[in-house]
Amino acid sequence: MFSRAWIFVGHESEIPQPGDYVVRRVLDDSFIVVRDESGSVKAMFNMCLHRGMQVCRAEMGNASHFRCPYHGWSYRNDGRIVGLPFHEEAYGGEAGFNRKGARLLPAPSLDSYNGLIFISMDPDAPPLIDYLGDFAFYLDYYTKQSSSGIELRGPQRWRVKANWKIGAENFAGDMYHTPQTHTSVVEIGLFREPKAEKRKDGNTYWAGNGGGTTYKLPEGTLEERLRYVGYPDEMIDRMKEVWSQDQLNVIGENGFMISAASIFPNMSFVHNWPKVEDGDDVLPFISIRTWQPISENETEVLSWFAVDAAAPEEFKALSYKAYLMCFGSTLCVRMG
Ligand code: FES
Q1: Mean pLDDT, the chain, whole residue set
Q2: Degrees (nearest 5) of the Cα angle 132, 133, 138?
Q3: pTM reported for the whole predicted model
Q4: Closest Cα to atom 3, ligand 1: which residue?
Q5: Whether residues 123 and 163 fall in one domain
């Protein structure tokens, strides 16, 4: 399954400068996702060409080169080999081992959408946009609220003793759990809607290789409904510039606001609008997750905070607080 799908490994905002990199996994394979000196994004197996040692040991950082800790082969940040100690003595020079053209193995396929970087182990994978299919329509609500795109913070990372499919499936459409599981979040005053009946009101959808849930909003115009979930007018103006009329109609005409969603197989999203300060005002946040299988009954969760890069700084700060209070790793601690 994971060898044929497109797997999310990071966002371009995590690696804005040449040399910035993050290390991410697809099952047991480690990848360096890096912006090279020319500014292009690459994903390479984190595996030395010599004897397979991981050449990058940090989770993220900035580097012009990666040097293998085993025998010291070194690579530019675009993957090209540049240093091979004792090349002459050990290999007889270029005749024995031709360095020219040797490079860390690239991920078989790499593609991106709204700055989200995906890789596939299938060299003949269909274009990402075809794989996403109609889910791209919904993906824009989370990842393109202005022409500036989103920026990510994180990820927080933790493990749960559960199969990875439980989380992915829950985010893809289990509205049924919200009145029960999230009662405690209402009790501590984070959610504005106290009625369990209301908290499950909405629609589910499946589109392309993704699916998710929506909440039903109160009567009102597009602007009133976006204000209801806490977006300031300047952000609403930018949404109106980048979303299609059909995308705007889901909110303004039909009265639905996207909530949780998943892209097959292991990427999820959540959009919610809790109260973050005293009073009735709410603030929306967006979070992106991956459910990384460790074993059949253990999962590593990576959780990012995402926000419109053009949002006012005060909004970003409060939205981050909303995320941490509702969906950060502290929630796991709080709920025991
Ligand atoms: S395994 Fe990397 S230099 Fe030998």
Answers
A1: 93
A2: 75
A3: 0.94
A4: 71
A5: no
Q: Is residue 70 lining ligand 1, measured as CB closer than 6 Å?
A: yes
Domain check: are 262 and 222 in the same one?
A: yes
Query: Above 50 in pLDDT, residue 12?
Result: yes
**Number of neighbouring beta carbons within 10 Å of residue 121:** 17
Count of domains forming the chain: 2
Q: Which domain holds residue 78?
A: 7-131
Of the three residues 111, 131, 151, the one that is the final residue of a domain is 131
CA dist., res. 112 & res. 135, Å (int): 14
Which of 53, 54, 86 to mutate for ligand 1's pocket (most ligand atoms within 8 Å of CB)?
53
Instruction: Give the C-alpha separation, 169 to 311, whole Å.
Output: 31
Would you say residue 120 has pLDDT above 90? yes
| CATH number, domain with residue 209 | 3.90.380.10
How far apart (Å, rounded) are the C-alpha atoms in residues 220 and 285? Answer: 21
> What separation in Å is there between the alpha carbon of 73 and the centre of ligand 1?
6
